[in-house]
Every structure is written in C-alpha cells, then in structure tokens.
C-alpha cells in the first residue's frame, strides 16, 4: 500500500469519525435593542466551556460564538454595565459577579431572561427553551437554523413582549429595568416549587406565572412548565439568539466596557411562532462578525487551480479535525 493510499485511508477514517460524532454548533447573538447589552454565557457542570463567557454587543450588531459538541448551558443579556476606576464591571441586571466582561463560569443575578440549551453530542436531539423562572430583564428569541426535520417542536422559542412594562409593582426592580419572579420576590414554596410543592402535581401555575405565560406563551414561566415550553430539534444545527427581537425595549445604557462590532444586515425577526432565518454575513471571521461563508479547497491552492476547486462542507471547516484532514489531502496532492 503506497503512502498516498494510506493517507487517503486515514483521511476517510477521520471524516467518518467526524460525521458520526457530529459538529459543534454556532450561536449567533444579535442585539436589536436600542442600547448596548453584554451577553453572558455559563456552561453547565460537566459540560465543556464555551468561549468567550461574556462580551459586549452594541445595538444593531451581531457576534458568532462556537459551542463545543454536546454543550449544555445558558446565555443571557446583562444591561446597564459600567466600569469603575479600578476596571471592575458591574451591571444593573443579569450581573454575573465576575467584575469583568467575561462571566468565567458564574451565573446571572436575578432577574434575568435565560436562553437554555442541551445540545446533542452526536446523532441525538437538541433541547432548548427561554426561561422566565429567574425573572425577566429583556425579551429573547431563539431561532434554530433550517426547518423542522421530524421534530414537531423545532421552532422559534422565547419572549418578544416587554414584560417590564406590565410587571406588577411588587415584582418590579432596578427602576423598572427588571421584573422579578414570584419565587425570588417572596421565597414561598408554592412559588419556588420547593418543599411540599416540589413536584408537578402540587406545584401549579400561579397568578404571577400565568401573567408571564400569557405575555410570553413560548417561554418557560415556572419550574414545571415543560410540556409547552421545551423545544426540540434534530442535533447538528446552529442557533440565533436575538435580544429585543422587535426592537422595542430601551436599554438604559448605550455605551460601556468593551469593543464595538459590525452591524448585521437584513430584516428584524418576527414574533415567536415562525422560524425565520437571521441574515448571515459572508464576510471575514474577525471574531466579531458572523462566521459563515464558503471556504475554498486548500489542496487546490498547491496546484495553482483555485478557480475550479470544490468547496469543503461548512461543517468540516468548523471541526477541530479540519487541520488533520487538510494536511492529509495536501500530502496526497503533492
């Protein structure tokens, strides 16, 4: 068996392994609020870390972040963030207590609207929801890429309503910038689904959770709201997380710690219920824009024939195996 044949065999094995195990998902964060938000990301215990764990997202901009295969965790928006003379970052809502742009494994302070994910490691289904169990600070819409492929709940999830405008006075906080959950505000077992209420039979919707549910029917309003609020898609797809999908809520601060990004193009997403796709740039991968677009077949560059070269499937470029695949193919060509 010649060297070229052996290399081809190794490359094929690597490709088969990659296709069996699946690829990492890309989360595109979009800010359609009137002011800057500072997304935070926390990985669940036992899940690989997603980097970065926090960043700045000015109004009208987007940023793509790649998640490890099989990742599970949550994402949210921090608002009203300021940086003091010592460089410490503190946010009015959703603060993770890290004192920096990155949350470094720390969770959001309540109240905060949470986008929660459990991604398939390979061959299974993704599960996701938008939760108001820890309260609300901004509307969030989660959209899966592509249409449903057998899963009946593969659709847009989230809340487009401005709950801060209709928040009861006893739940209102941060000068109207957040709406606490009843559990957070009162700490009673019937609101927290704890003690004698720690099961779906005894912990039922309350007047407060029903208020959230009526405004945001595709969000998780209390601990046992699973049947109508958990969404499922076949694994291996990307997701768009849009803050203020109808661009109505005002964020108190339009500037703060962090850098700016390029503005996305295209229309504003619709309300939950459909699965419109967010516009995606075919531009560069500077870590701030949307990391999509065709990539030319590197092996063809070695022969000087880049014009007629086929393209790698986008999934392979996102794989950590890509350098090995390209190296093997270059050996074959040369």
TrEMBL record:
Low complexity compositional bias: what residue ranges?
A: 256-265
Transmembrane spans: none
Q: Which UniProt keywords apply?
A: Signal
Q: From the UniProt entry, list the residue stretches annotated as the region Disordered.
A: 250-289
Q: Which residues form the signal peptide?
A: 1-24
User: CDD domains attached here?
Assistant: TLP-PA
The UniProt entry, under PANTHER family, shows: OS03G0233200 PROTEIN
- The protein in question is named Thaumatin-like protein
């Amino acid at each position: 068996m010649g060297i070229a044949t052996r290399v081809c065999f190794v490359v094929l094995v690597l490709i088969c392994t990659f296709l069996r195990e699946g690829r990492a998902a890309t989360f595109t964060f979009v800010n359609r609020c009137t002011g800057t938000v500072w997304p935070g990301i926390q990985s669940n215990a036992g899940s690989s870390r997603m980097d970065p764990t926090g960043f700045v997202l000015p109004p009208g901009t987007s940023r793509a972040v790649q998640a490890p295969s099989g990742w599970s965790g949550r994402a949210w928006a921090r608002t009203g963030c300021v940086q003091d003379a010592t460089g410490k970052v503190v946010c009015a809502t959703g603060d993770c207590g890290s004192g920096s742009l990155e949350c470094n494994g720390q969770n959001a302070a309540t109240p905060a609207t949470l986008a929660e994910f459990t991604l398939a490691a390979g061959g299974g289904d993704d599960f996701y929801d938008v939760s108001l169990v820890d309260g609300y600070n901004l509307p969030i819409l989660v959209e899966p890429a592509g249409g449903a492929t057998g899963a009946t709940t593969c659709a847009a999830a989230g809340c487009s309503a401005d709950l801060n405008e209709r928040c009861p006075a006893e739940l209102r906080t941060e000068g109207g910038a957040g709406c606490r959950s009843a559990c957070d505000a009162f700490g009673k077992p019937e609101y927290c689904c704890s003690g004698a209420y720690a099961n779906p039979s005894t912990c039922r919707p309350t007047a407060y959770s029903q208020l959230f549910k009526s405004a945001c029917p595709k969000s998780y309003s209390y601990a046992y709201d699973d049947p109508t609020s958990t969404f499922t898609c076949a694994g291996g797809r990307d997701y768009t997380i849009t803050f203020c999908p109808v661009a109505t809520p005002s964020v108190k601060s339009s500037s703060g710690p962090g850098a700016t990004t390029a503005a996305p193009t295209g229309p504003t997403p619709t309300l939950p219920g459909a699965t419109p796709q967010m516009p995606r740039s075919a531009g560069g991968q500077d870590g701030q824009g949307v990391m999509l677009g065709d990539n030319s077949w590197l092996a063809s560059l070695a022969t000087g024939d880049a014009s007629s070269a086929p393209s790698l499937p986008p999934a392979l470029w996102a794989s950590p195996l890509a350098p090995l695949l390209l190296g093997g193919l270059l050996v074959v060509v040369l």
